[in-house]
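Appendix C reproduces, verbatim, an entry submitted by the partner laboratory led by Prof. M.T., so that reviewers can inspect both the input and the predicted structure.
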Amino acid sequence: MSAGYHHGYQQPRRPMPPQRPMKKKRRPGRVILVLLLVLVVGVVGFGFYVDSTLKRIDALPDYQGRPAETPGTTWLLVGSDARDGLTQEEKDKLATGDAAGSRTDSIMMLHLPDNSAAKPVLLSIPRDSYVAIEGNGRNKINASFAIGGPQLLVKTVEGATGVRIDHYMEIGFGGFSNIVDAVGGVDICLDEAIKDPMAGIDLPAGCQELDGPKALGFVRTRYTFATSDLQRVQNQRKFLSALFEKVKSPATLANPFRMVPLMNAASGSVSVNESDHVWNLASVALNISDATSGTVPVGGTPTIGGQSVVQWNKEKASQLFDLISKDQPVPAELIAPPK
């Protein structure tokens, strides 16, 4: 038989190489969903942590004759000049001085309506407002805070306005400055330059970014204005709206390097009523910059008992607080700043 393959002979088949297990295709949507869930759980967990660290005080007294509950939600927002916890270096940096005790540098009412036809209202109550203070005759409204703390202040505000306060928030000098720095500063535009050594500021006219110490000086200064505290409360509302507009911006909410320091700053410096929580504070942040903003209608600024005070326009103030207590829209001209 000649060399070669026999008829019918088949060459052995080579063994097939082992098959590699098929890789599962990654689904981007599922990965993103998992990451979002982790983020949400982390944010919620951090939110509960911050809520547990808020300073809680008994600020809303229950007493005979207290205004009845009304539609909507009303906050009392208080900026105190408390220097508790500040080092001497911090006091120098913030130009706060060394005054003892606590007074109110700002008092604001924020009403969040249930009525969809009404806008939120942010109302400044000048600290020199001349009102009745239980057990202390008539005096400047900020004296009630110095005498009896948050409870007497709330009772005095409710008595003067007829509006029931549902929530309370208070912040001191250092906490305010820390919150501004946590969001990376706040942009503000000034029509005129402001120079006030007592407040530690020398600000040029025009638009600029204010850091914590400069922002604190801006909302505190009043001696450089002809209308003193009446101009200061306008500046306070202007800055507060700009601050919370930045707080609720994507640049803050989606940036953990801004959001975490902000939450930490709030947890260490904000005082709320015993029943208030961080999610209640969120409603303030989300609504305050969209509010109709103004001041309690002013009737005059006479000198009584040797001190300059602010008297309300009784008729307009009564109309204003009646609208708020009934959850009705407040015309902007009713609370327009005095000329």
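The chain is about 40% helix and 20% strand. Additional entries are available on request from the coordinating office.
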